[in-house]
Amino acid sequence: MPRLQRLPSGFVAATGVVVVGRRRRSLSRGGAIAALPVGAAVVAAGGWWWGALLVAFFTSSSWLSRHRHYDAGAQTQQRRGSERDWVQVLANGAVATAVAMASQVLPSPVRRYCYPAFGGVIAAVTADTWATEIGAGSRLPRRMITTGHLVPAGTSGGVTTRGTVGDIAGATAIAVLAATGSRCRWAPGRPSRLLLSITVAGVTGSLGDSLLGATLQASYTCSDCGSMTDHAVCQCGQNASLTRGYPAITNDIVNLAASSTGAFVAASLSRALGGYDPVQGESLRSYQRCSLRRLRKTGDADDGLADRSGRSSPSAGTGG
Ligand SMILES: [Zn+2]
After folding, report:
1. For residue 266, what pLDDT is reported?
2. Residue among 44, 9, 8, 36 nearest 20 (CA)
3. How far is the CA of 136 from the centre of ligand 1 (A)?
4. Exposed/middle/buried for residue 17 (C-beta within 10 Å: 0-12, 13-18, 19+)
5. pLDDT tens per residue, range 221-230
6. More confident residue, 259 or 141
7. Residue 81 pLDDT level (bands cut at 50, 70, 90)
8. How far away, in angstroms, is 237 Cα from ligand 1 center?
9. How far is the CA of 132 from the centre of ligand 1 (A)?
C-alpha cells in the first residue's frame, strides 16, 4: 500500500519551488503546471531527499540557463528560451516520477534499486543540462561525438572539452548529494556504492544523449538563414529542411531515452556491485545494527537475499 501522507506537504513544497521558478522565468506556465505533480509525486512516493535531488537539478539548471554566454559567432538557435515548457518538464521528469512511484509498489528485493535508479535519472538530466549550458560558452572547437568533425555551436551531438567537464561535474554533484542522503531513511543505500553507480549512470546517460543527438535525433537546416535547428520551422519563420535523423525523434524523446538510460545503468551497477542495501524506510545504520545482531545470533554471514520479513527490528512497532 503506497504511503501517501507526504502528498499534501509534497504539493506545498513543489508549489513553493514552482512559484520561485515561475517568478525567475525558469518555467513557462505549462511547465509550472507540469512540474507540480512531478514534484509532489516524487516527494510523496520517494521522500524529502528525493525531492532535494529534484530541486538540485532544477535550481542548478535554471541558474546556468540564465547565466550562459553564447559565442558571438554562434549561428544556432537551440535556445528555446530559458523557460522550460511542459514537454521539457515531462521529458526530464517522467522517468524520475515513475521510479519514485515504483519504489512504493515493487517488492523489496527490487525496490532497493529504486533510489540508485532515481539518482541515476537526476544525474543524467543534470549532466546533460550542465554540459549544454557550460559548453555553450566554450570558444574551443566543437566536434561531433561520432565523427570528430568540427560543427557549429549548439549542434546536437556536438561536444566540447568544457561541456564534458560540465557533464562529469553535474553527474558527480548529484551523486554526492544522493550519497549524502544515504544516512537518512528516505534515501537508503551505501554511500560509496551510490556515489559510483550514480556518477557513472549520469555520465553514461548524458553520453547516450549526445550519441542519439548525433545520429537519430531530427536536425534541420534553415534554407533561408542557414542556421541549424532542432525544429522543422526556423526561428526566422522559414521552413527548415531535415538534414539528419528522424522527424519523430525530437530532443525531448532523446532526453527521455537518456534519463531511462541513467536509471537502468545506476540500478544495474548498484546490483552488480553486490551486497545488501537497506530498502526505503530503513536507514543504513539501523540495517547495520540489525544485521550485526543477526550475525551474532546465527554466526553466519547474510548473503543479502534472505527474506527480511521474519526479522525483528527495534523500530518495527507498527506491525505492518
Ligand atoms: Zn532561418
Report:
1. 94
2. 36
3. 20
4. buried
5. 888 887 788 8
6. 259
7. low
8. 6
9. 22
